[in-house]
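User: Predict the complex with pyridoxal-5'-phosphate.
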Amino acid sequence: MVNQEWGFKENKDLHAAANFTIRNILEAIMGNIDETQTGKQMVHLGHGDPSIYPCFRTSTIVEDALVESVRSANFNCYPAGVGIHPARRAIAEYLSKDLPYKLSSDDVFLTAGANHGIEVVLTLLGRPGANILFPRPNYPIYEARASFSPLEVRHFDLLPDKGWEVDLDGVKALADHNTVAIVLINPGNPCGNVFTFDHMKKIAETARDLGILVIADEVYAHQVFGDKPFIPMGVLGDIAPVMTLGSLSKRWIVPGWRFGWIALTDPTGILQETGIASSLKSCLTITADPPTVIQGAISSVIKKTPDSFFININKLLKESADLFYERIKEIPLLTCPHKPEGSMFAMVKLNLSAFNDVVDDTDFCMKLAKEETMVLFPGNAVCLKNWVRVSFATDPAVLEDAIGRLKQFCLRHAKP
Ligand SMILES: *Cc1c(COP(=O)(O)O)cnc(C)c1O
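Assistant: Here is the predicted structure with pyridoxal-5'-phosphate placed in the model:
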């Protein structure tokens, strides 16, 4: 027998980062679910994937586009590193409709979903000593990915009493000459908020004054159903350069397709000048691509999906958001400070002092899973302890049932 020590070993940093992802946290909560014990069917309001509900099924036009792409046999090849040209052009045209200037296909880079876009952007911005500004609460993949980059993470607050607007004074206080970028998610995950033009302008001006890039995560673009319209951050690209992350996952309800993009909305050419645009290209050349068959379908998906599909999805989301917001008021142990106006989520505060035997948000989610066969996402995992994130993107009957269970649970655990 050869007596040797292996040159490789378990990477504990990887576990630490993965533990922080939505998937892993949900897995831990799901460990408490036992349908046979409670006799109740599981209700999952823990993530933003309504694709399992028939009412949220994607358009047949979208499905047909993929079938045609496969059948054409034109897309069995390797794609170009930054994506095939017709797909890039279709996305450039799609995004340009909402911008005061035209994007070209060279401004668009295809990714295997927005999560891949996050990985790419954090990789190319990472250098020792640099720091990046993330919102609190945040979409947790950002923290998980940043832990593998030399970037130091600094959190600014989103303010619940101001409709989850950015605490701009906080941003200014956090930033220094080593700050590279600020991340914004609009429409918001996890808060379900939508930024106004005036507020976005202030954010852009702050970024310009600080000399930093704006990373605009717009995977919920156009998924708005309150009073505020969706305005892409790229509209303000002449104030500060913007990298926009987009995706098919949420608007087209096909998260399993793994298709997204990074768009440079930079009319003044700062990203070219600083070389960040060319680093982006290099970065994409050495990472995974979205499958070529998906890229081959994109032009049809973008051009042919009828408006009626999007209108219907927003109508469903609005009905669910209204139902959720009204019914949650019946539970005095919970507070939802802001009615969701976009995306698929709302943040709900646990009034812990009113609970008898719930110590924190994780405990709440674990006990809720065990007793009510129901999944919510603990706020701790989106950097806001003792809140929970609720996805209301479900069938209305399922949501009604879920709120009923939530109420029963809270009443059972309330102080007398
Ligand atoms: C879902 C989500 C993503 C990831 O989108 P994919 O395209 O499925 O990778 C990125 N950012 C936010 C804010 C999300 O909610």
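The longest helix spans residues 307-328.
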